[in-house]
Amino acid sequence: MKAIIDAHQISKIYNKDTIPVYAINQVHLHIEKGEFTALVGPSGSGKTTLLNLIGGLDHTDSGSIEINGENITHMSAGALIDFRLRNIGFVFQSYNLIPVLTARENVEFIMQLQGLEKKDMEARVELLFAQIGLKDKMDSRPSQLSGGQQQRVAVARALASRPQFVLADEPTANLDSASANNLLDIMWKLNQEEQMTFIFSTHDQRVIDRAQRVITLVDGKIVSDTKQVPISHVE
Amino acid sequence: MKLLVRMAWRNIWRNKARSFVIMVSVALGIFAGLMVMALYKGMMRDRIKSLIYQETGHIQMHHASFKEDYEIRYAIPNLHYVNNLLMKNRNVKKFTFRSVCQAMLATTNGSAGIQINGIDPFQENECSELNKKIIDGKTLTNTKKFGLLIGQKLSKKMKIFVGDKVVLTFTDLQNEIVSAAFRVVGIVQTTNSAWEERNVYVRRNDLNQLFGAPGMAHEVAIILHSNDLIPIMMQQMNMQFPDILLEDWKLLSPETNLMVETVDITSYIIIGIILIALAFGIINTMLMSILERTREIGMMMALGMNQLKLFILVWLETLFLTLSGLPFGVIFAFLLSNFVEKYGITYGQGSEEMMRNFGFSGMIYTEFPYEKVGMIILFVISTAFISCLYPAIRALKLNPMEALRK
Predict the structure, then answer these.
(1) Could you tell me where the DSSP H helices lie in chain A?
(2) Could you tell me the pTM of the whole model?
(3) Residues A139-154 pLDDT 10s
(4) Of B3, B14, B306, which has the smallest distance from its Cβ to A78's Cβ?
(5) How far apart are the C-alpha atoms of B384 and B400, rounded to whole Å?
(6) Does the ipTM exceed 0.90?
(7) Confidence class of residue A233 from pLDDT cuts 50, 70 and 90?
(8) Does A109 sit within 8 Å of B304, measured CB to CB?
(9) What does the alpha-carbon distance between residue A165 and residue B19 come to, in Å, rounded to a whole number?
(10) How far is B267 from chain A (nearest CA, A)?
(11) How far is CA B11 from CA A110, A212, B323, in A?
């Protein structure tokens, strides 16, 4: 199958001038369309750094990353911004919705940056809010939504730009069990129905249980990369 | 763009107290700037008005050589012809002839160098409203021969009162020294105490009789229907009277003209200083706002907001913050300026006399500078743009990954 993400021998080193610390050390990663992948490992193992490198938020010190065949390793900051807008959806641990915008406007924000027509935008917003089950909360401000609801809006925002894949950094870390399960159900459904690729960094066993592929990082290196039958799928 | 506008507007209300302080500062700054302009404009309007209607008129005519040494032999030629042409000219509202000479005024208390203005009382009253400036005594229209009106400042200095006799000494047409006694019939108060101190008024016939040249005049003061007619009249009259010296009020009172010209520059400098002070407040507020939203800005950049859009967002926020205070400043200045234009404010007793020394009246009546409001709005928008630069650069320099960690 065609790789959406192809990382070749990538490294990220901090404190290069004093005592070098390998946040990511000679990692090779190949992710295909439609995968539901969990990056796991102890704190400081390099999960978030790897997500940042794949997401074009940080540059590698060696190696190269190709997203959908396009090499992003040496892209300028400006080109990376545009690349992220067109190709990558982000879900952050602490939701990071824009507090002055309503839920609908937060989702529209990405599409407006993309310059979408109003008609197309409205149709997509309707669809996304139906998918996350928050049609009745479209005009609420983030402060009027619960943590789980905010994270669902963040997922809708991540999907609004029709990205190649979604990177989710500890998306359930701040959620209670019910909200976390609800969020995972939505993402799982999107993965199954629309072949949307999700890559999570997580400590959360519930996320790990749902993943089709679990990559374990320790000290910046991939120590295991296993495919599994997700629990929800078994159920 | 619509979403950016909406975000910018809502962002300025995230910290209401801080935004309110800046808006009040802008409103006060604009209010102060406009009031200074209104005061200057009102003062200049009154000064020009008093200069034209009490001292010079819009245009004056003299013999080409008269002003070199103020010799009385240089009278205006063909006075009858001048009179006829001015009577027929529709731009001319009023005019009056004056005989003028430099003289010595003597009393038992001392002497002073003065200028004698020989006037036709009725025409002069129409042109310069001299009768309205008499604070003691009466006009020259109803008095016997050799009556004299004296300025208040000179009367105080020389301790001259109505009914007193003074001796005026000057040279006649044959360069013979002439002395004549005049009786003070009235005391005149103008808005220019320097003028009062060196001018007296007598009847032109009396003065001409002493010159030995009946019907002569050295000066024609012309009042036009409007200030705007001056250039066209100067052009027209230069052709009609090629040998006559024609001067408008700007040439006759260059110090007033300079004041009028520099007042605009001064008010722009004051507005500039106010806006510079405001700019620092705006920069500080915007910088705090950017620093507080580091994570949010990092997130927007991570999601794909480019630098241009981020800059526009910061600029719009600065603009809204600045423009929100602007209407209040303009409205308050407009209301107060109209109030002061109607009722006036006084400098206070001590300062009133000082202002009269410079040709200003004791009361200030403002005039709202409507024509400057557009310019001020432009200044404010420019200030917002300049003020947003530093905070915007700080925002643009943020690394989205690092910003997201904060």
Answers:
(1) 47-54, 77-87, 103-114, 118-132, 147-160, 177-194, 205-210, 231-234
(2) 0.75
(3) 999 999 988 889 889 8
(4) B306
(5) 26
(6) no
(7) very low
(8) no
(9) 40
(10) 40
(11) 18, 42, 15
